[in-house]
Amino acid sequence: MCDTCGCNLTKGNRHLLAPGGKLEKTSQGAQAITVLKNLLSENDIAAMHNRSHLDRQMVFTINLMSSPGAGKTALLEATIEALGERYRIAVIEGDLETENDAERIRARGVPAIQITTGTACHLDAHMIHDALHRLDLDAVDILFIENVGNLVCPASFDLGQHRNVTLLSVPEGDDKPAKYPVIFRAANLVGVTKTDLLPVLGDFNMDSAKQYVQALANAAPVIEISTRTEAGLQDWLDWVEKALIEYRACCERGESLRPAIQPDGARLHAAAP
Amino acid sequence: MHELSVCHALVTQLETLAKAQAANRILDVTLGIGPLSGIEPRLLEQAYPLAAAGTVAEHAQLTIQVSPVRVHCNSCGAESAATVNRLVCAQCGDWHTRLISGDELLLLHVELTRETECV
Predict the structure, then answer these.
(1) Distance (Å, rounded) from C-alpha A45 to C-alpha A36?
(2) DSSP structural state of residue B118
(3) CB neighbour list of residue B12: distance below 8 Å, 6 or more residues apart
(4) A117 vs A111: which has the higher pLDDT
(5) What average pLDDT does the segment A134-145 reach?
(6) Taking CB atoms and an 8 Å cutoff, what residues of chain A touch B12?
(7) Assigned domain for A161 exists
(8) Is the ipTM of this complex over 0.90?
């Protein structure tokens, strides 16, 4: 993909440049340039850079996204508890304010870098780049990036991660994937958390939640987890380990793993730097 | 909220373009945005003047073309219109589809000029 040979012209945008198309005309005296470049290309370049950093040291990286309070940190605590002896885990925490989450992670004996974004509602690839330089990547097998609690903005920014996980907690309701399609479409795995509340909150329909994810043309598995009762926790841990093995196999072939945002869409629409 | 970040990225691209073309004013900017990009065109329009203030792109006319959500069905091969939260095939109803339009976030077209100051 490049900006010169026209290979970034797609079925979706070609008509704009056709004779008589909206972009063919030029105002008098002005110079017109057709760009067809992804608006976030600067972020995407930084994300690719991060990914190659991570791949060099074979650090499998998961971007964990959800609304605030869906249980991202609790899931990480349980994950560290279960896998911490077998794998070297590190965490990058994104929050608007406070070091609270990083302190919870550090209390488990795992390095945690806190990024406080101030008013920014998401992490971007540049913030992750800075955080990566504060971590000893040689000593990390699995890196979790706990994104800012937000179901809207984090979905638009590639960080250089290998897998996206989106959580949906039972109290939020089963139709969240339909309401926030961008972030659930980007998920390699959807985790329904706080399932211990299902008997109390009788109106959450697990089948509906799964159907809403499928309606986004996303074949990601939907797993049910309660960190409180530990029900379903093993399914999550199995997925992480399987994904790690898949990632390492990719690295050994000299390839990398990209997160779920449909590869055809990304390839078709994003122009290379 | 993140529309402002996107606008900053856009203005950076516009400044680079203007420099490369030795232009000192950008007249017109056209973006192609799909509903599944996660960017709200209306908010982008509001954020643009803030991000562009004091740059070559300050007074540019911003046009946003919203691309339709369309899918290609992996089962029956049909191409059809879809909605953001129902990306299923309109022909056969299968959800095994591939998005062919609707997640774009593209800078499509720029018109720029070099204005000489009157002495």
Answers:
(1) 16
(2) P
(3) A42
(4) A111
(5) 97
(6) 42
(7) yes
(8) no
Domain boundaries, chain B: 2-113
Chain A residues lying within 8 Å of B85, measured CB to CB: 177-179, 181, 212, 215-216
Are the C-beta atoms of residues B104 and A13 closer than 8 Å to each other? yes
Contacts (Cβ under 8 Å, ≥6 apart) of B118: none
Q: Do B30 and A23 touch (CB under 8 A)?
A: yes
DSSP secondary structure letter of residue B83:
B
Task: Kindly list the residues from chain B whose CB atom is less than 8 angstroms away from the CB atom of residue A13.
Answer: 32, 67, 104, 106, 108
Contact B1 A215 (CB under 8 A): no
Question: Which pLDDT band, with edges at 50, 70 and 90, does A3 fall under?
Answer: very low
Of B36, B85, B110, the CB nearest to A178: B85
Answer yes or no: do A12 and B70 touch at CB < 8 A.
yes
Residue A119, pLDDT score:
79
- Cross-chain Cβ contact A264/B84 below 8 Å: no
> What's the one-letter identity of residue A36?
L
pLDDT digits (tens, 9 = 90+) for B11-45: 999 999 999 999 999 999 999 999 999 899 999 99
CB A3 within 8 A of CB A36: yes
Q: Average pLDDT for residues A170-197, to the nearest whole number?
A: 97
CATH number of B2-113: 3.30.2320.80
Q: How far apart are CA B68 and CA B45, in angstroms?
A: 19
- Percentage above 70 pLDDT, chain A: 85
For residue A148, tell me if it sits in a domain: yes
**Backbone φ, ψ for residue B18 (5° rounding):** -60, -40
Instruction: Verify that A131 and A234 share a domain, yes or no.
Output: yes
| Euclidean distance between CA atoms B21 and B18, whole angstroms | 5
Nearest to B95 among A22, A23, A215 (CB): A215
Give the pLDDT score at A266. Answer: 45
Average pLDDT over residues B71-88: 96
Q: Does residue A134 carry a pLDDT above 60? A: yes
